[in-house]
Amino acid sequence: MSTSRQFSESRAIPTRTVLINDTTQLPHDYCTTPGGTLFSTTPGGTRIIYDRKFLLDRRNSPIAQTPPAHLPAIPGVTSQNIPRENKKNEANNHVNHRDGKPTTGGFQMT
């Protein structure tokens, strides 16, 4: 068996900087690195890394304001009002045996 190995020379990954003028030019799916860098890929596999300066400029965009406009009213999610029916159900969600002891599981210990 031969243990000889041939090492190839390292090459830099080609990169280019593209100026984006509008948020509609951004893709819909993003990924993040553990360091917080945002990146995305095109259908062809090209990796797109977003510049910190560009993202900081976009934080003042009307789309980035909280709360976002045109969200449906979902109680407890997009609005603070929680229906009273849910509060009543939470208080009565335990089951008691005939002897007054609450259930502890699916198996009976002897």
From TrEMBL:
Keywords: Protein synthesis inhibitor, Translation regulation. Residues 84-101 have a biased composition (Basic and acidic residues). Residues 62-110 are annotated as: Disordered. GO terms for cellular component: cytoplasm. Transmembrane segments: none annotated. GO terms for biological process: negative regulation of translational initiation. InterPro entries: EIF4EBP (IPR008606). Belongs to the eIF4E-binding protein family. This is Eukaryotic translation initiation factor 4E binding protein 2.
